[in-house]
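Lab meeting, item 3. Inverse folding demo.
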């Protein structure tokens, strides 16, 4: 998977870039069709301690997934984004499978009633 990292108005250090690559590449375990990931890092002008913003856009076959988090550190924000995207990927895979476990139960009951 191709991971693009963009830091707005500052230069991200190698340690942060390595952390982001490791976290984002772990998403390959949950979906085979991931094409590209875009990570945008920003610092909010607020004087609050939670002024680090991470945005993660994941391009998968047939869909794009997006998460944005604001935290005290970029590592925490990226970690939260990856977790949110992981949940979206799992929901997307279930949707693509078509039939949920509830639907399977209803179909099985209908088949038993017909016999």
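The presenter then showed the designed sequence:
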């Amino acid at each position: 998977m191709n991971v693009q990292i963009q830091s707005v108005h500052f230069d991200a250090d190698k340690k942060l870039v390595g952390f982001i690559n490791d976290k984002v590449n772990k998403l390959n375990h949950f979906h085979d069709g991931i094409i590209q990931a875009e990570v945008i890092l920003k610092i909010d002008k607020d004087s609050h301690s939670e002024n680090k913003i991470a945005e993660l856009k994941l391009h998968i076959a047939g869909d794009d997934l997006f998460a944005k988090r604001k935290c005290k550190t970029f590592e925490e924000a990226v970690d939260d984004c990856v977790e949110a995207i992981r949940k979206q990927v799992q929901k997307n895979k279930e949707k693509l499978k078509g039939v949920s476990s509830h639907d399977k139960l209803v179909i099985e009951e209908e088949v038993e009633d017909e016999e």
